[in-house]
Amino acid sequence: MKLDLIATIDRFEALQPEWNDLLPTSSTNQIFLTFQWQRAWWNAYQPGELFIITGRNEAGLLVGIAPWFIEADTRIIRCIGCVDVTDYLDVLAPAEYREPFLAAVADLLVAQSAKFSKLDLCNIPFGSATLEILPRFLTERGFSLDIKQQEVCPIIDLPTDFEGYLAQLDKKQRHECRRKLRRIQENQVDKVEWYIVGRNHDLDAEIDKFLNLMRASHPEKAEFLTNEQHLTFFRTMVHQVARCGWLQLSFLTVNGTPVSTYMNFDFNNRILVYNSGLLPEGYSQFSPGIVLLLYNIQHAIDLRRPVFDFLRGNEEYKYRMGGKDHPVMNLEASLVAN
User: What is the mean pLDDT of residues 122-136?
Assistant: First the structure.
């Protein structure tokens, strides 16, 4: 196992041809670990010094990536993407190379310990092989550990038809969903439509519509979008994932006015609900947020996607719609002084 420490943007970008080939073999195969997402995040934020550790086997094949950086102010090693705009993070390595790669990473951390204060890895899915293997090697090398649940991602396991999905809900919620859909379908006054952004749309214009609805939906979201780094990330990321065919940006319109929106990703045979927006006043009679969500769930079932993932956050509506908690974990490690 030959390790390399990547600390410059040009060497980061040089990994692009190999990066995504490694991802499907890894314990966590998520859009947030693609080269496109990681590079878009770093381009927008750059909060410190790159500290990407790569591993290659005897044939020179890339078999491991620890996509990390050292935060400038705290000297803490963190995951690229952590934490506000990214939901799942991990180390990339196929099963047969995880142990030797992570053992070598632990050795390198000891050798480089003067550069950082501690390791703080966020958003690791519960059940990741990293949580099983890396702590053992760190403990053997004198690190103290703190592993805890960070948050939850409510997930719906989808059946093969929409009626089967509704049957999974409790009686009251099932009735409410059917009532909301029926009210839309029986409406004879207003023109209510929904669509998914495609190649024939002006993506920049659709992004603007999404951001406007996101701002309108909640003061915290409006405040979040006053940060130019967040806006840079959103616009760059959306173009990147759309180019790769992973974007599922949908809108519900009433008489041509966009009233609700969801930004989802279609990746690794699952739908990921990344963010949303809503006009809070004037259209409540249509229940536009829930109706569009139901259309998205039905579309996921039509696509034969078995998983509808609400991503991080324990908002009540996710459970009403059938979400079940899946934890994401945080790993902290500090080298104990001799």
Answer: 97
Nearest alpha carbon to residue 263 among 241, 279, 247? 247
Residue 290 lies in a domain: yes
Query: What is the bridge-based pairing of β-strands 118-125 and 76-79?
Result: parallel
pTM, to two decimals:
0.96
Q: Are residues 175 and 273 in the same domain?
A: yes
Q: Examine the domain organization and report whether 163 and 137 are in the same domain.
A: no
Residue 111 sits at the vertex; the CA angle it makes with 105 and 117, to the nearest 5 degrees, is: 90
Question: Cα angle at 332 between 155 and 336, to 5 degrees?
Answer: 160
Helix intervals (H) in the chain: 9-13, 16-22, 35-45, 95-111, 129-140, 162-168, 171-186, 203-217, 219-224, 228-243, 288-302, 316-320
pLDDT recorded at residue 175 = 97
In a domain, 317, yes or no: no
CATH number at residue 84: 3.40.630.30
Q: State whether 272 and 174 are in the same domain.
A: yes
